[in-house]
Fold this protein.
Amino acid sequence: MRFKKTVIGAVVVAAMACVVTPAAAGERPNGSADIYEALERDMGWSREQADANGKLQLAAIQLDVTVQKHLGDAYAGSFFDIASGQLIVNATTEAGVATATELGASGRLVKHSLSELDSIKAKLDDAAGGTGSAADRKEPGRSNDLGVSAWSVDPITNSVLVSATEQQFEAARRLMADFGDAITLEEIKASPEPAANWMDGGDAINGATCSAGFNLRNTSNGKKYLLTAGHCVNAGSSLSGQGGINFGSVLESWFPSYDDAIARNDNTGYWIQGPWVDTNPSNGGIVTSSGFTDGPVGTVICKSGITTKWTCGTITAKNQTVTYTGGNTIYGLTRHNACVEPGDSGGANISVSGATRRAEGVTSGASLIEWGGVKRCVGAIFGWLGFQSTSWYFPIADSIAYYGPKYGVSTW
């Protein structure tokens, strides 16, 4: 068993935030400058560096799909290395390493196959009440405290990364004893806790308790929809936008097990939708989001929410299972280190790859600490000590896989 130590505060579902006023109709200002400012602040990049990395990252995302097809069972995961600008591909055979290298990636020979690691993760998911894939959903899983906080297959360590508090540590050691070096144990500081007339991603919804995610549409019948976090709304309820004005009915809401929800625009005479994410938010410039990605570990994402607005970071884990306090477990989350605070839940996370921004997912929760009576992300308070924020979103690839066939929806 391998061990690494990091500092993560209590994970809470982002909830309450600030009040905003309705937007006025008019020309939509370009908000790309806000993204560049966030990348400079959070990543230390100039505009030129951001553009250069974006091109490399987009190429890596596309290459990853190609590599997986060619390597087959020899493929053991991948991640994007910002320093080199390369996609690092794990392979369990020398032939697989050679193939990955020939295709343009950097091949790396590893011990554990993806099927082996996925099998270990599946056993943990099942023990926590797993309910199947995000595309084929069942009712929310039962409350079940497995004894650890989070787990996912980690391509960097070629293992299943398990997160546990100091109090959970001995139980985690016993739980993982049978898996040897296929497990990397990570100590965290606290258990996870659920924490215009334009409708844009990042805007305030339901009295500014949460943020909007992404606009969706059915191109066959012209109906419009909004994607946000499941814990923000209840199925059968009404969702309101800025100014408390009704948007429409919440058709489905999933939490726990998953964390997304879809609402239908029943007030099309008021709410105007398009491929937009607000940069202020709300009512600032807009960033156009076209299509979606499901980027590998190491790729850069930025998120928009009503509290922290635009913040940026890198994906640090994929398909991570997180157990919130009370035993409710969420599956398939993407973990990253951009700052997220209460009110940002449901907001838009986009990949920063190339000139066009692409949807990645909707904010679920974050690692927060109490500071001056206010919940803050770890990086905002202790960033000067080298501690990074820890946040999660539910990937839109899984949302589209489920809602797409049911409602005919797609991103713009």
